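Students often ask why inverse folding is considered easier than folding. One informal answer: many sequences map to the same fold, so there is more than one right answer. In these notes we will look at a single instance of the problem. The structure comes first.
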């Protein structure tokens, strides 16, 4: 699923806050560079921002000056520069949930030889915060920083299930309106996933996001209400797929509970 103008939809500002237009546009340029789109042309950036090429060039030049972007050769194509790495590294090294979840996720990945992802909602997508696998596992094209569809993945569906009805309705409507037919096709699977979540505590998906990939997902709701999601992914839609519901799903619920408990103990220690 891909939005032509903006992959993840427009930002919504909290009530009572003010938007600095040039800063907002500069941040939107940086948001455009995502996993699989690490190099973009000036024309494409201009299209996504909905502003003129001249205005986009000025914004890009500022980001280049401060080393958030760099020019790819002599063309009008750009890619992220070292300052983006500095910010991203600061986030990951300061994230308590990533430090807490990593060893717990790794144990599950090694036990079942699966890929497991910890994700957080970001606009109309899920952002991968941590990814664990085992040496015997086929690696998927997902890494830290990858953006996964909200309604077409077990990861996103599990997170969305855990939200208030008003949040669910708003995001589903935005998916339908901004993602067109691609978004609408994911909605029946989303509602099936909600039914699974109510019944089992986890949901499954098969080949809806990527061909030949099956997944199981569940929500991780911390004591302060912050919601993450976990998803195990396996290659194949055949016999191994049965493991998702019979073995991996229940184990994923245990992993989510362990992460929640560990996060709660961490908060108590900080106090």
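Output (designed amino acids):
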């Amino acid at each position: 699923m891909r939005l032509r103008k903006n992959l993840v939809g427009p930002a919504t500002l909290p009530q009572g806050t003010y938007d600095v237009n040039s800063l907002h546009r500069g941040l939107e340029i940086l948001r455009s560079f995502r996993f699989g789109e690490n190099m973009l042309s000036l024309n494409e950036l201009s299209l996504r921002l909905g502003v003129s090429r001249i205005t986009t060039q000025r914004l890009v030049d500022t980001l280049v000056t401060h080393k958030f972007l760099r020019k790819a050769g002599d063309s009008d194509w750009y890619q992220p520069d070292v300052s983006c790495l500095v910010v991203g590294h600061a986030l990951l090294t300061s994230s308590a949930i990533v430090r807490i979840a990593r060893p717990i996720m790794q144990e599950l990945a090694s036990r079942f030889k699966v890929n497991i992802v910890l994700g957080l909602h970001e606009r109309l997508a899920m952002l991968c915060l941590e990814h664990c696998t085992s040496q015997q596992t086929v690696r998927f094209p997902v890494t830290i920083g990858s953006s996964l569809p909200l309604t077409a993945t077990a990861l996103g569906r599990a997170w969305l299930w855990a939200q208030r009805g008003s949040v669910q309705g708003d995001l589903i409507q935005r998916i339908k309106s901004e993602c067109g037919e691609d978004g609408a096709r994911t909605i029946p699977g989303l509602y099936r996933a909600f039914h699974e979540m109510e019944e089992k505590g986890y949901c499954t998906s098969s080949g809806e996001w990527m061909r030949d990939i099956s997944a199981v997902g569940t929500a991780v709701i911390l004591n302060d209400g912050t919601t993450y999601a976990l998803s195990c992914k396996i290659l194949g839609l055949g016999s191994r797929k049965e493991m998702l519901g019979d073995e991996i799903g229940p184990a994923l619920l245990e992993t989510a509970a362990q992460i929640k408990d560990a996060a709660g103990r961490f908060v108590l220690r900080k106090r």
